[in-house]
User: Which sequence fits this backbone?
């Protein structure tokens, strides 16, 4: 049987299971939230037989399943018998931290039947104690920021991944068609000489060498690219530290066919390193 990397995320409500699942999702895991434990063996078999190979799976299983939860250990034993390997990540936090989170979010604790958050927390701790003992990793998130929880998870589970998971998407665009809605950073290159007004260049695009040579022959073009590259390279480690896995940079000119295309491609070539994956998207080309 092909070895699959299976992580079961569980723990106390409000301790960060959803945040943990998003971390695994960012690293290419196929994620399912609130899977009934009785379906575990069937689900694993479906993944194994899927046409598109699924070999990294993260499943959130907790007491929201109600009576289904009691089947968890039976299903885990069945997985072991069938040769599947898995690791259990248990997330917890102090009563004070959990109460504060529920107060701030104004959500009701799923096990606080009479509305008392503390009673729900105590009941859940008791019900989850056996699973906590079986966990491979226990993380207390009481004082962890989301970025710190991510660091803990990457350290324990993603250690074999390459460090090039940070994705930079550089989008060239025309201001006539609007700024990309999902851009984190936007730069305007309309201050550069425009090939559109050069008769022999007008019908070509920034992908053509003659247009690229025209745009990049100006001192201001070279200086802008140098300063932009320096700034983005400075920012990347800090974005990673704060938990970002993707940076979308918009570079715009008037129509999105000449200057922005050239600068997007030039910046992409400068930023490609072992730790980053860079993709260009010429939206209006």
Assistant:
């Amino acid at each position: 049987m092909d070895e699959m990397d299976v992580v079961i995320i569980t723990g106390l409500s409000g301790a960060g299971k959803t945040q943990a699942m998003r971390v695994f999702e960012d690293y290419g895991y196929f994620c399912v939230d609130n899977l009934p434990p009785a379906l575990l063996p069937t689900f694993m078999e479906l993944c194994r037989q899927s046409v598109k190979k699924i070999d990294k799976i993260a499943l959130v299983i907790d007491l929201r399943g109600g009576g289904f939860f009691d089947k968890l250990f039976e299903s885990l034993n069945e997985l072991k018998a069938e040769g599947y390997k898995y690791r259990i990540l248990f997330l917890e936090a102090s009563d004070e931290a959990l109460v504060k989170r529920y107060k701030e979010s104004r959500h009701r604790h799923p096990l606080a039947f009479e509305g008392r958050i503390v009673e729900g927390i105590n009941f859940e701790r008791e019900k989850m104690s056996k699973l906590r003992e079986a966990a491979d990793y226990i993380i207390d998130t009481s004082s962890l920021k989301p970025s710190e929880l991510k660091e803990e998870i990457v350290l324990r589970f993603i250690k074999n991944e390459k460090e090039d998971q940070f994705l930079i998407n550089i989008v060239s665009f025309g201001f006539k068609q609007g700024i990309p809605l999902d851009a984190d950073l936007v730069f305007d290159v309309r201050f550069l000489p425009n090939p559109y007004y050069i008769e022999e260049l007008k019908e070509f695009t920034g992908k053509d060498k003659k247009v690229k040579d025209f745009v990049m022959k100006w001192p201001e073009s070279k200086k802008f690219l140098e300063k932009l590259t320096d700034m983005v390279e400075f920012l990347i480690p800090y974005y990673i530290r704060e938990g970002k896995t993707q940076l979308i940079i918009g570079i715009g000119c008037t129509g999105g066919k000449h200057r922005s295309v050239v600068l997007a491609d030039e910046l992409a070539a400068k930023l490609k390193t072992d730790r980053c994956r860079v993709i260009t998207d010429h939206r209006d080309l």
